[in-house]
Protein: DM13 domain-containing protein
Organism: Cloeon dipterum
Amino acid sequence: MTAGTESLVGRRLVVENLKSLAVYLLFLQAFASGSAQKEPYGVELGDFEGQTGLGVTGKVYAVDEKNLYIKDFTYDGKEDAFFWVGTDENPSAEGIIVKYPEGANNTEEPRKLPALNNVSFLLRLPQSTTIRSIKSLAVWNPEKTESLGSVVIPKDVSVPVPKVLPEFSRLAHDLRSGNVTILDARTFLIPDLHYDGKGPDAYFMVGNGSKPHGKGTKVPNELGDLNVLRAYRGQTIAIQLPENLTVYNIDWLVMWCIQYKHNFGYVTIPKDLNVPPALGQNKIGVLSRLILSLPRSSLWIAKSCVLSPRAINNKLSENVRHQ
Ligand SMILES: *[C@@H]1O[C@H](CO)[C@@H](O)[C@H](O)[C@H]1NC(C)=O
Ligand SMILES: *[C@@H]1O[C@H](CO)[C@@H](O)[C@H](O)[C@H]1NC(C)=O
Ligand SMILES: *[C@@H]1O[C@H](CO)[C@@H](O)[C@H](O)[C@H]1NC(C)=O
Ligand SMILES: *[C@@H]1O[C@H](CO)[C@@H](O)[C@H](O)[C@H]1NC(C)=O
Ligand SMILES: *[C@@H]1O[C@H](CO)[C@@H](O)[C@H](O)[C@H]1NC(C)=O
């Protein structure tokens, strides 16, 4: 990270985002209880509907506040058309382009949608838009001001949201943390993590049963490797379960020393979760860079564990732009 003016401005922006986020996440949590959807793609919003013959087909899901998943999408690519979100149920010129593919170079003019034959992908909503702030997603031809197919976003859609858990229990080696958050079905955010680094054979592990034990599965650290854990001094980290597991088939996350069968501290995973599916919207490498770039002054928020998905998403889209 360079410490130029630009990054200082960036940091200030992140702090502002984080402040509004604290409120935002509390708000989300108020809506989070209730429905127990564990759909593999999120909450289904509907199918593209349009004039027959224009041939836009596909199903749209809400993954989280910021991401849509488009499944089995087909379009012939013959017009100068774009994905388009607006605040009207009937798509109109009042809207903005959603870049496809995700991660397209943001310094470039948006590219028109190519022909796509039955493909599935994530769409990250642009700028400050969220699923709550839009009413429709369309394939839109701005020149003809014409929709080739659109989906109305239902008013009362209950979008999966991250789940805030308690902190790690404090059993050994000065392990402590802020409240652990499940960002999506495979990703944990652990804020303000402390650990003295003195366990000779310590790992993050997950498994089944009422208490942690050594027969679980190792979880890679925030760098994505399975080395013995080193000391943490208040870092906020994100870790991701191996591909074969989700939060729905584990009972606990522990920091465990295999050699001495020693439990340093753990969190229990609740059974009634409705978190966003893990479709790659939280990329661990990008998350680590994001978290490293957070200013120390925002740590108070991390401590109360309200590093919100919106902050992360804003920062992620910045990163994507700069890639
Ligand atoms: C982004 O697009 C601009 C303009 O086409 C180009 O100059 C630049 O090299 C691209 N950057 C990346 C990372 O692809
Ligand atoms: C589209 O792909 C899905 C798999 O993602 C497959 O089940 C489906 O049959 C395909 N549809 C068509 C029309 O080829
Ligand atoms: C953090 O966890 C504690 C329980 O350990 C809980 O009482 C508190 O509400 C949590 N904080 C947030 C912000 O959810
Ligand atoms: C926990 O048990 C479930 C089935 O009950 C299984 O699918 C899952 O892989 C187990 N988790 C671990 C970490 O062993
Ligand atoms: C999941 O995969 C990891 C390796 O990626 C393996 O070590 C572990 O045994 C697997 N766990 C389960 C429960 O299948």
Observations:
- Residues 72, 118, 120 surround 2-acetamido-2-deoxy-beta-D-glucopyranose (ligand 2) (CB under 6 Å).
- Confidence is low (pLDDT under 50) at residues 1-37, 299-307, 316-323.
- The radius of gyration is 21 Å.
- The longest helix spans residues 5-32.
